Description:
Layout: E1 26-35, H1 45-49, E2 53-60, E3 67-69, H2 91-108, E4 114-118, H3 124-133, E5 136-140, E6 157-160, E7 175-179, H4 188-199, E8 206-212, H5 214-219, E9 232-233, H6 236-245, E10 248-256, E11 261-268, H7 283-313, E12 319-321, H8 325-334, E13 342-344, E14 361-363, H9 368-371, E15 375-378, H10 384-393, E16 399-402
Parallel strand pairs: 4-5, 4-7, 5-6, 7-8, 12-13, 12-15, 13-14, 15-16
Antiparallel strand pairs: 1-2, 2-3, 3-9, 8-11, 10-11
Helix pairs in contact: 2-3
The structure holds zinc ion.
Zinc ion (ZN) binds near residues 17, 20, 63, 64 and 66.
Amino acid sequence: MSADTARAPQPKRRETCPGCGAPGPRSFHRVESAPVHSCLLMASAAQAASYPTGGIDLAFCASCGFISNLIFDPAAQEYSPQYEETQHFSPLFNAFAEDLARRLIERFDVRGRTILEVGCGKGEFLDVLCRLGGNRGVGIDPGARPERFSAEALERFTLVRDWFARGFRPIPHDVFVCRHTLEHAGETREFVSAVREYVGARPDALVFFEVPDTGRVLREQAFWDVYYEHCSYFTPGSLARLFRSCGFEILELELDFAGQYILLMARPAPGPTAPRFPLEDDLAQTRREVELFEREFPGQAAAWRRRVRAFAGDGLRPVVWGGGSKCVAFFTALGIGREIEYVVDVNPHKQGKYLPGTGHEVVAPAFLESYRPRVVLLMNAVYREEVSRMLRSLGIDAELVAV
Ligand SMILES: [Zn+2]
């Protein structure tokens, strides 16, 4: 990290849980200095190296099981159309999104309805949901990119660059969708109660949320899944407790995408509701898993650091596959520099740009034909088959190591 790195002023450590308000969440994991964004790619290595950083102080609330960064500063965030979070250049991810859309359409009869998707990213899921279910929709996101869709698709939905917050202008809708957004909100209780107020008391209204599952992160000590943009970390239980306490009945609660994501379908209720899914009863388990993460993280990080250095030392030219937040967090936590020279990503909008913090260049898969890496570190094991096939088609004989 260069000496002139801009550091966001460290906010005062929060003393209460943003999920339930209970005092004294217990800190169990700290990252001194992480780029405040990891999906916002930079035009030059110098710009990447001087990107603002902030601290992470991850704490566990014994009352509701919610985990959050108590020194998160929302003012440090700049979501814009330059933000490249999309995973939709992966066929596997597209298959997951299509399958999910089909299931929502089938199980909850989401046909001929109006969808409002808050935090819709580039809008791909809304597109699928409208196309497959004959629905119409509005997508809200500061990073929305309507120009990436055909005029035909944009007859079914519109995309608006905006933020959702309490008092948001009324947009008529039957289904409120919010995927991979709540984990970016520091004030989770404020966000979910604002959604409850916005949706109103209509008994037929549907509310669908999707967030990463932190239980897996804790069990696997997946420290690369802890980054600044994610200030809020849920398990099925803590997510359900938040929704129930904000006046939602939960219709469905499950894990998907190889157990990495929590899916929750809810509808408004007159007041708080009582738990009824076995998956919600995870408070004691989460406490144990937090302790496990705390105990195992230093050894896990040291082992990866040794491994990456050995790959580089043996002249194997290791590269990372997947230039997203996981990669930035992995590099940041381990202090990876030139041991790894390049990061590969299938998203053409990322190629030729640089990762915030460490300044690694993102290259297209075809670049590997000349670079000839002998080791490819895969940031998400779920893509193993897909990446393995691509490497074979490029004629690359490299060991694929899933992080
Ligand atoms: Zn709490």
